[in-house]
Amino acid sequence: GELQKGQLSAETQQEVINVLKGKKLIPIKIMPASKASARDKGKQGLTRKELIDFTQGLTTLMEAQVPIDKALVLLEGLSETASTRQLVEAIRRDVKEGKTLAQAMDARKNTFAPMYVSMIRAGEEAGILGQLLPSLEKFLTDAEETRRHIIGAMVYPAVLFIVGILSVILMLAFVVPQFATLFEDAGTKIPPSADFLLSLSEWMQSYGWTLAFIPVFIIAGWKWWGATKEKKQQRDRFLLRLPILGNLLLYKDSANFARTLGSLLSAGIPLLRGLQITRGVIDNTQLVKELKEVEVDVQAGVALGSALDKRKIFPPLLYKLVSVGEESGRTASILKQLANTFDNYVKNLIAKLVALLEPLLILFLGI
């Protein structure tokens, strides 16, 4: 006696009736959904964990040589969250209508990054989707692990900084003003340092609320600096030149580059196509620009190691070992080993940064 509403993907109205009867339901009204509402159902994005789970499930089914349409049906039934089920249903509908898996994913850019779609497209074009998916899954898993490692390492310094700043603000606003009466009662001349502190406290009491706008201005300025392609490239170039952070960003992107290109080459993807796909995993636009130049050089017949060396921006270990790999015919395996080396370097650098940041913060707040 309860009414239910829903959507079904079917060729005919009779097929919808049969499916509903099979579910012990009595059809009352059946009408075609508008294309917009049918497509929107699968357009909400997935969380990182949901995307990794989706990729792992798809990888398992592809490795078992299950056809893509059947794999999507199984994935829809196995998905634990409603958002994943809706996404898989929307992708399955597009595939059933004749689109490739890459085209269906490309229509949902809020879930699938360009690199993700490019790897799926390359796997479909070369008929090696089952070989590429494990590499894609590993890339997503490693990226998430690195992100969690960075966040975990920064929790304590962030808490220390926020609590310290709040403590200083509260002291200036409520504690320091009480010392002004002591100086007045003593009738002595206020020392310059104390006078400065009292003036700062007075300003804090009158205009301290303006400090709340500082983070807003910083975030707005950062977004403005990356508003256009030219500004974003200028900002990324500046970040790479920073003493320690620049190295961290360079080696993180170099690890992503080496892992992705190594996986593509080992799966049989041609070098030029692999370089095109690999650009999608690089966050820094300045490095993306340099990789486009590398691609042009490789297309002209220059070896990959020499093309990377020519740019003079990537870690020396990258182009030196790539050159060795090209001479020995082991480029793919060497790139994968380099990815692990760069990952370890990034983790060690983060540990050093955090260890250095804590005393610096204490010193800053103390002053």
Model description:
The chain is mainly α and 367 residues long. 76% of the residues lie in helices and 0% in strands. It has 18 helices and no strands. Helix 16 (304-311) packs antiparallel against helix 17. The model is unreliable at 36-42 (pLDDT under 50).
Give the tally of β-strands: 0
Class by SSE composition: mainly alpha
Order of helices and strands: HHHHHHHHHHHHHHHHHH
The fraction of residues in strands falls at under 5%
- Report the C-alpha radius of gyration, rounded: 28 Å
Helical percentage: over 70%
Largest sheet: none
Low-pLDDT runs of 5+ residues are: 36-42
Name the average pLDDT. 85
From the spread of the alpha carbons, the general shape counts as flat
Distance between the termini: 72 Å
SS summary, helix count: 18
Main features:
367 residues, mainly alpha, 76% helix, 0% strand, flat
